Amino acid sequence: MLFQNSHGRAAATGADSVVMLEHTVPVDDTMIEIIKGVGAGTNLIRKGEDIKRDTTALSEGHLLRPQDLGLLAGLGIAEVNVYKKIRVGIVSTGDEIIPFQEKPRTGQIRNINSLTLTGMVRRLGGEVTDYGIVSDHRDIFFPALEKAVQENDIVLFSGGSSVGVRDLGEQAVETLGPPGILVHGVALKPGKPILIGMSGATPVFGLPGHPVSALVCFDLFVGPAIRALQGKNEILPEPGLSCVLSRNINSAAGRRDLVRVKLKLENDTWTAYPILGKSGSISTLSRADGFFVIDEENQGVSRDDQVLVYLYQ
């Protein structure tokens, strides 16, 4: 027995399959010829076939995408519990720092880091409060950092993390209360002088002043902290591409090196071309498509070696 049915509607009572209209030819007003046969269940979606009762549709820590909203709508779910947006405070410190719109005089540096770090946080779904440029004097910097800690879930300060006469980052974090400093300095290039501490439950990161070092430390340390507080299951960036290295790169044993690269598709193979430069050269990041890691136990990688490249978004 044949019934005419529209796409998406319930099948007629007694029907066990559906033939697509374009697979039929009219014979007369009461008959059609089926030119492509079907078996039982063809072109039918049975109740509960997509998501079965008592199964998990979306796990905790899953980042909601447009298709996930469609899934929830299909299940009749209008509201779900989500993690709040993470609030990140950014403090730029240093008497030599000036707003990036201004022309620097001798000994002055444009404030690059607050702008780039703001973009990195927002890319991860966080909200930013920029506390501006703060003098690296104790009576000004310490209260500014304390205010940022009180008002945010994570605090970043740029500059003041290396060992120097006027670098008060470590002292400032210690005054915020326990547990205080957790890490000061890592075997990493670029990014060695990073400072990591906690004030109660609030992570505080002292990022290097050099722009490249600051962004590398964000990728490796700050980004995972943000994802963890967001409740995400995957907090570390995943390698995006396996690439062939274009040249030899040396590295010091006992130190992890992050090498920026430009990618080119050559003969159906992705080739990674290293972009070398100092940690203050922001243009090396702007030209790079991603980076790969040379681990502490290696003293370099060779031309034509396979490397896993973490892609910049």
From TrEMBL:
A Pfam match: MoeA_N
Example of a GO biological process term: Mo-molybdopterin cofactor biosynthetic process
Domain MoaB/Mog: 89-228
UniProt pathway: Cofactor biosynthesis; molybdopterin biosynthesis
The UniProt record lists the keyword Heme: no
PROSITE patterns: MOCF_BIOSYNTHESIS_2
Cofactor: Mg(2+)
MF term (GO), any: metal ion binding
Reactions listed under catalytic activity: adenylyl-molybdopterin + molybdate = Mo-molybdopterin + AMP + H(+)
GO cellular component: cytosol
UniProt cross-references to InterPro entries, sorted A to Z: MoaB/Mog_dom, MoCF_biosynth_CS, MoeA-like, MoeA_C_domain_IV, MoeA_linker/N
Its EC number(s): 2.10.1.1
Keywords recorded for this protein, A-Z: Magnesium, Metal-binding, Molybdenum, Molybdenum cofactor biosynthesis, Transferase
Function as written in the Swiss-Prot or TrEMBL entry: Catalyzes the insertion of molybdate into adenylated molybdopterin with the concomitant release of AMP.
Family (UniProt): Belongs to the MoeA family.
Protein name: Molybdopterin molybdenumtransferase
Native source species: Desulfomarina profundi
Native organism taxonomy: Bacteria, Pseudomonadati, Thermodesulfobacteriota, Desulfobulbia, Desulfobulbales
